[in-house]
Write a structure and sequence with these properties.
alpha/beta, five-stranded parallel β-sheet, ATP hydrolysis activity, about 260 residues, elongated, 5 strands, AAA family ATPase, Helicase, Ruva Protein, domain 3, Rossmann fold
């Protein structure tokens, strides 16, 4: 198929290099906010629908972090508990966690302060899939950030999840956590013009010498995907295959509708 469309690589894949990503307005704002949160040791909430590019924005942040100034940890566990959180942090930073939860929490606090005050680095902890968290885990976010009688924070905490997480944190008994959020941003989908630019960009990356998707096809892709990059990738990949199997060099609206019906 790559030879048929004269491509020098596979387009519409999640394995694209950070430097080759298409930068939409929402993506640019998300990465800028994450960088600011990291620089200022803030509690940041990043939300967005599945496939919207939240993890990609986090990946971009990681690549930009100066290793002489930051120590980074990414946790993605929908069943994360307070006990597991402290264990994971300690183990990933090279410390054997104590068996008792209270002692492990003290180890965690000592570790974060040591990295910040003695190593002169900022710990950056990203917790993904937070919309699945139990209430005890959400409550624990307050204590994860509590240092020196709650007078300072030596770390950046970035919590990532779907939009429902925002509503979860609005309930009365979680108000104390919601009030602590210093930076929040919801990633939005691509506009129709951005969807067109995104598809064109993906084809430029693989050095395709000509336009493959018709205007009608692009409009159909945008309407169905609502500008969600993961859905755009799926539609484009499947419609390219459909066009190839039919011997068509151009992906038209009919190919998109066939793929949509299969999905």
């Amino acid at each position: 198929m790559l030879d048929f469309f004269e491509m020098k690589g596979v387009p519409f894949t999640r394995e694209i290099l950070i430097e080759q990503l298409y930068s939409s307005s929402s993506y640019n704002e998300a990465t800028a906010r994450l960088e600011y949160a990291a620089e200022n040791r803030q509690f940041c909430l990043l939300t967005g629908e599945a496939g919207m590019g939240k993890s990609t924005a986090v990946r971009s942040l990681v690549q930009k972090l100066d290793r002489t100034k930051y120590r980074y940890l990414y946790l993605c566990d929908s069943e994360l508990t307070p006990k597991l959180f402290y264990r994971e942090v300690l183990q990933n930073f090279g410390i054997h966690p104590a068996f008792r939860s209270t002692e492990a929490k003290r180890q965690y606090q000592s570790l974060m302060l040591d990295i910040y005050e003695n190593e002169r680095k900022t710990p950056v902890i990203v917790i993904d899939e937070a919309h699945h968290f139990s209430e005890p885990m959400l409550q624990e976010l307050r204590f994860i950030l509590n240092f020196k009688e709650d007078s300072m924070s030596p770390l950046t905490l970035i919590v990532v999840g779907q939009p429902s997480l925002r509503n979860q944190l609005k309930v009365k008994h979680l108000e104390a956590i919601d009030q602590r959020i210093q930076m929040r941003y919801q990633v939005t989908g691509l506009t129709e013009q951005e969807t067109k630019a995104y598809i064109k960009h993906q084809l430029i990356v693989v050095e395709t010498p000509y336009e493959i998707f018709s205007e009608e096809a692009i409009q159909a892709i945008h309407n169905f995907s609502q500008g969600i990059p993961r859905k755009i990738n799926t539609l484009c990949s499947q419609s390219l295959l459909d066009a190839f199997l039919q011997g068509n060099k151009v992906v038209g609206e009919s190919h998109i509708h066939r793929v949509i019906n299969e999905l």
